[in-house]
Specification:
It contains 12 helices and 10 strands. The chain is of the alpha/beta class and about 300 residues long. The longest helix has 22 residues.
């Protein structure tokens, strides 16, 4: 396949690397610093298996999606509409667009801009950028891909590239499960700058996470979304399976960039208010992260960071 990755941050670079290594023609769309590094030295992946490099195309322009069979949208949730408007004129009529983004409504928002269906994807991977064009993998990497006419073919290609992929008509439920994980960990990891394994050991952290999860479940149920009964166990287990991972929100705050907190805890707060469900724990975490963001707002972030 010809694959374009819009928003070549940690998630986009990781999956772009695996697809390129499997022989697909990959174009990364990212910031100029990433483009320069990748054109010069290739895309670097560091993992438990060692360090490897692949050659990929890279550009800072939205026309990098031209001719692509598959477009992976990995931009920050707040950049969804702007990114969609940038690529819309260049998309092939036969291209499949996947949203590999945090939050639960990005595929719907992106589809409204593009005027065509977008397939939602729940992403379970621990990655971070450790330099321009250099991504580190810390754990997992599996996907739950929404159902579409091309989803079985895409899933087969992903599996062959070393990306475990399940196709599900209940992708929205999976995205809510991922949202709950993010609401429990992202803000706390960001405010403390701690990885999950150390974070969970803090006094009162498990109780605080339990409050957050219970609020999220109440909002999901009120919205008609099915959440597994053992979701809290799943949340707490993440501290073991991704012990060394700092949240994407922690990475954003450390770099002085806007985070996705409005689309994580903030989303739960807004949906809770609309549905009459109190969300004080989520509101407090959202408020604290916004306060920290405000200190460094002038540094900003671009659309293509992922």
């Amino acid at each position: 396949m010809k694959v374009a990755v819009l928003g070549a941050g940690a998630v986009g670079c990781y999956y772009g690397f695996l697809l390129a290594r499997a022989g697909h023609a990959v174009t990364l769309i990212g910031r100029p610093t990433l483009v320069e590094a990748v054109r010069s030295d290739g895309l670097v992946l560091e993992s438990a298996a060692g360090r490897d490099t692949v050659a990929v195309q890279a550009t800072a322009s939205g026309d990098g999606v031209a001719g692509a069979d598959l477009v992976l949208v990995c931009v920050k949730s707040g950049d969804t509409e702007a990114a969609g408007a940038t690529i819309a004129p260049h998309l092939s009529s036969s291209a499949t667009t996947l949203s590999l983004q945090n939050g639960v409504d990005n595929a719907e928002r992106l589809a409204a801009v593009l005027g065509r269906p977008v397939v939602p994807v729940a992403v379970y991977v621990a990655t971070e950028m450790v330099g321009a064009g250099h991504v580190r993998h810390n754990g997992r990497g599996d996907l739950i891909l929404g159902a579409s006419g091309t989803s079985p073919t895409i899933a087969a290609a992903f599996d062959a590239a070393g990306i475990p992929t399940t196709v599900s008509a209940r992708a929205l439920d999976a995205l809510w499960g991922k949202l709950i994980l993010n609401c429990a960990y992202n803000a706390l990891s960001a405010l403390t700058q701690l990885p999950y394994g150390r974070l969970i050991q803090g006094e009162g952290v498990v109780a605080a996470m339990t409050d957050v999860v219970q609020e999220c479940v109440a909002v999901a149920n009120a919205a008609g979304v099915s959440v597994p009964d053992d979701i809290l166990d799943t949340v707490l287990a993440l501290s073991t399976s991704m012990a060394d991972q700092r949240s994407s929100t922690a990475q954003d705050l450390a770099r002085g960039r806007p985070s996705e907190i409005d689309h994580l805890n903030g989303y739960v707060v807004r949906r809770g208010a609309a549905l009459g469900v109190p969300t004080p724990a989520n509101r407090m975490l959202h408020t604290l992260v916004k306060l920290v963001e405000g200190r460094d707002r002038a540094r900003g972030a671009g659309v293509w960071g992922g």
